[in-house]
Amino acid sequence: MERTDYDQIIHSQLEDIAVIDYGIVKGNETIVFIKAGQDGSMYGYQNKYLKIADNINKEYGYTVICSSNPFDGTNPLDNAMKVIEDYCEEQEFDDYKIFYMGHSNGALIGAWFGVNYPRIKRMLLVNGPLMYNWHKTKEGIQKFSGEKLVLVYGSLDQSFQYTGLIKPLENEKVKLEIIEGQDHHFSTDTFDFKKLPEKFLLN
């Protein structure tokens, strides 16, 4: 049966700036945290994030937390880590780890800020814009010390032409993957956006 909503929803105040919504599908001590693109909801277009959360939970038993993104330049991940920490405390998860997935601006947030949190062991950054503040993205990639960081770009995405900047940063932990024929929102049917975590993050 297809899931119709999250098991738990949290509305968290980010300083005086905005309210961030978090949807939680309850599972085990591995937390998959998904950050939507700029102004995206925790559900995503046609419920894509809820569907991803449901798929991951059924397949792997992981807890999945999806976050809206009213981003204005302030680091929102302190807020997210507090929500995750509180949730794990309630569930008595002492040794949890986080796998991060971000799309578009959510990918930028991962690159810029995610490397500062040791609990984040893996990152999947999809179509993060490379046209501005490249130095911040580069610095984040270089500082990453977790298990693996995969940057995915569609060949029709506007940042694809700049992906050569990433190639010199590749190593045993950092990989660049190109999905042919896909645009920024994965709107063509040659590859299903919902398959990205299984292909590049979880295995």
Order of helices and strands: EEEHEHEHEHEEH
> Portion of residues in helices?
25-40%
Unreliable spans are none
Mean pLDDT: 95
Number of helices: 5
Task: Name its key features.
203 residues, alpha/beta, Rossmann fold, 8-stranded mixed β-sheet, 5 helices
Describe, in short, the structure shown:
The protein has helices spanning 48-60, 77-90, 105-113, 134-143, 196-201, and strands at 8-14, 18-25, 28-35, 62-67, 97-103, 120-126, 148-154, 174-179.
Detailed description of the structure:
With 203 residues, the chain is of the alpha/beta class. The protein has a single domain, classed as 3-Layer(aba) Sandwich (Rossmann fold), CATH 3.40.50.1820. Helices cover 26% and strands 28% of the residues. The protein contains five helices and eight strands, in the order βββαβαβαβαββα. It has an eight-stranded mixed beta sheet with strand order 1-2-4-3-5-6-7-8, sandwiched between helices. α3 crosses α4.
